[in-house]
Amino acid sequence: MEKVQHMTRSAIRRASTMEVNPQTKQNLQELFVNFCLILICLLLIYIIVLLL
Question: Where are the transmembrane segments (predicted)?
Fold first, then answer.
């Protein structure tokens, strides 16, 4: 268990020090927004189907 915690901590440390270029950051944000929009649309379709 101790080893797993240590590995997790070091991985988090590495991820936080890793430099992300602005283009990648923007792509990730757009991907996240698209994902949310798709989820909302699916939810709306589901609700409409339930109401019918």
Answer: 31-51
Helical ranges in the chain per DSSP H: 2-17, 22-51
CA distance 33 to 27: 10
pLDDT, tens digit, 9 for 90 and up, residues 6-37 = 888 888 787 777 777 888 889 999 999 999 99
User: In the chain, where are the structural domains located?
Assistant: 21-52
Contacts of 10 (CB under 8 A, 6+ apart): none
Q: Tokens at residue 24, please?
A: 């990648």
